[in-house]
Amino acid sequence: MGTVQSEIKFSEEKLKKVQEIISRYPEGRQKSALLPILHLAQREFDGWLSVPVMDYVASLLNIKPIEVYEVATFYTMFNLKPVGKCLIEFCRTGPCMHNRADQIIEYTEKKLGIKVGETTPDNKFSLKAVECLGACGYAPMAQIGKFYYEHLTEEKMDKIIARLGQDFNPDNKYEI
Amino acid sequence: MARKLLLENINVPGIKSFDVYRAKGGYRSVEKALKTMSPDDVMEEVKKSGLRGRGGAGFPTGMKWSFLDRKSDKPRYLVCNADESEPGTFKDRFLMEYIPHLLIEGLIVSSYSLGSNTTYIYIRGEYRWIVDILEHAIAEAKHNGFLGKNILGSGYDLEIYVQPGGGAYICGEETALIESLEGKRGNPRMKPPFPAISGLYNCPTVVNNVETLATVVPIINMGGDEYAKIGVGRSTGTKLISACGHMNKPGVYEIELGLPVDEFLNSDEYCGGIRTGHTLKAVVPGGSSVPILPAELFYKTKEGVARLMSYESLSEGGFASGSMLGSGGFIAMDETTCIVRNLWNFTRFYHHESCGQCSPCREGTGWMEKVLHRLEHGHGSMSDIDLLVDIAKKIEGNTICPLGDAAAWPVASHIRHFREEFEYHVKFPEKVAHSPF
Ligand SMILES: NC(=O)C1=CN([C@@H]2O[C@H](COP(=O)(O)OP(=O)(O)OC[C@H]3O[C@@H](n4cnc5c(N)ncnc54)[C@H](O)[C@@H]3O)[C@@H](O)[C@H]2O)C=CC1
Ligand SMILES: Cc1cc2nc3c(=O)[nH]c(=O)nc-3n(C[C@H](O)[C@H](O)[C@H](O)COP(=O)(O)O)c2cc1C
Ligand code: SF4
Ligand code: FES
């Protein structure tokens, strides 16, 4: 985990996936594959995009590294700094705010001893505040890995932290 | 019970799967269209239906399809807008998550009509599990001969791909979406040319919302004329409304357009009323970008006419005393809500989401956020209130895309209808931290 990314290369299986993605677009339009492949890379290389990772993606798509940097910096889902093993992304927009999002975020900050934007010293959790995730009727909510956790309460946050602190796989749906 | 065209089978166990969906009559519209109708016939039915874009702008879908440049020798594209990021809006997610084949079915019929052989669903990147759901549904449809080469022996070929975004509200704007789909930053393009003339890869392109394209299914099944009989006036058909905020039963509801707003908010069939023990203060009826209405102007127009859930009725009174149906993101707020805080929150959202191309939007949203932060936290002055109105006016109409307007409208309407609350924040700064508002 963390800052040292030893070998930056997709597995054979992932490289096949890359080729399949590129084949979705017309000849010469392989740059269209950039966002899907950045997601793939972020998932593969510790949850964030370092410069060497972005350079690797550029080489796969035969585009200039700057074309990757300018895209990676535009979209909020791409983390340009290391994040903890489990990234909790709280929605803080209007409808969630009206349903106690602020209190839940504050509670979690206190519980983990970190602020939004920070990572716990043991590298287990990072907190991030994001804008409306399309779950406004099920507020307050957070995205953790692939899934949404909705109707959050303080007790639910306790359970989430206890469970996901043991081990965490972003592709798993944890029943809390 | 009101008529359901999209969510009729939503509670059927297993409706997510191809087999159950098919057994319930799914994919009939594809058979009908590809076997018995020409692409233009399909478009004619959509025109007759009166269907208007469900993404928020309400532009007539059949008319938009007719603008698609069919003379060009370039490929034509249909792109499904599943970016859904307008605060208060979560209806497309519901449809894709629970009845994905309805969207795939609508996409096949629409692609056939428009002559698109490659259709992309651009979905907001955060809906990661829904990408899997859609890709699974696409694979099932293909396996059953509804996608791929020579569909149902008609000679028509179609592939559908799901493209995730990266977390950017602006990529819901159709030209920003196209830029993003080309692997670039989501900076909107100048319109015209509209995508119908020059869109994805500079080819003729139609961008339509998820719900719009799903609605093509019942239109083809029942015929455009029948569909047009549902609803009221130029608001034909049914509409998905995602309801949230301080109500007893938030969720996604399919309504017949023309339903009285009172019934929508207060009956048990829909929202079940404002949360028990509280009273309605204000409503944002169509997603965060549309003007806010105080309770009295929500229930009745200035002239005292009861409002309906329709494009026309909600906008009755214009910006002075009306609002818009927009994307159907319905946000209700009770008397505990601080209007200044709500506006500060929305404005921060727009500042955060501005793509930065036009200075009135980039700078103006930043200023407004700063001034609102000041007011909300008890450091504001009376002149700040007018300053906000002034900045909003300077953004409106002076930008490349409507995000600038979307940021300006809430400011103007919050202050127009709740000015005394902004003044209260200036007069009693010590009280606002825990103000009753
Ligand atoms: N669903 C959501 O999450 C969100 C929805 N919105 C909605 O988006 C709306 C603004 O969207 P825009 O696309 O900027 O509105 P618009 O009015 O420019 O266009 C609406 C549609 O009609 C087409 N169109 C209009 N005139 C045309 C012409 N002469 N020829 C060919 N095609 C034409 C456009 O290409 C577009 O697809 C707002 O009203 C807002 O309600 C805004 C933010 C988020
Ligand atoms: C800032 C902004 C964000 C938008 N976001 C969305 C969106 O998330 N989903 C959507 O369908 N339309 C969105 N739109 C509207 C689209 O530009 C376009 O009008 C719509 O996709 C057309 O589809 P329709 O005619 O089926 O409604 C947005 C517009 C703006 C200005
Ligand atoms: S109005 Fe705002 S979001 Fe739209 S193009 Fe200009 S800067 Fe970008
Ligand atoms: S406001 Fe939080 S999900 Fe929409």
UniProtKB/TrEMBL annotation, chain A:
GO terms for molecular function: 2 iron, 2 sulfur cluster binding; metal ion binding; NADH dehydrogenase activity. Binds 1 [2Fe-2S] cluster. [2Fe-2S] cluster binds at C91, C96, C132, C136. It comes from the Bacteria. InterPro entries: NuoE-like, NuoE_dom, NuoE_N, Thioredoxin-like_sf. Keywords: 2Fe-2S, Iron, Iron-sulfur, Metal-binding. Coiled coil: none annotated. Its cofactor is [2Fe-2S] cluster. Belongs to the complex I 24 kDa subunit family. PANTHER family: NADH DEHYDROGENASE [UBIQUINONE] FLAVOPROTEIN 2, MITOCHONDRIAL (PTHR10371:SF3), NADH DEHYDROGENASE UBIQUINONE FLAVOPROTEIN 2, MITOCHONDRIAL (PTHR10371). This is NADH dehydrogenase subunit E.
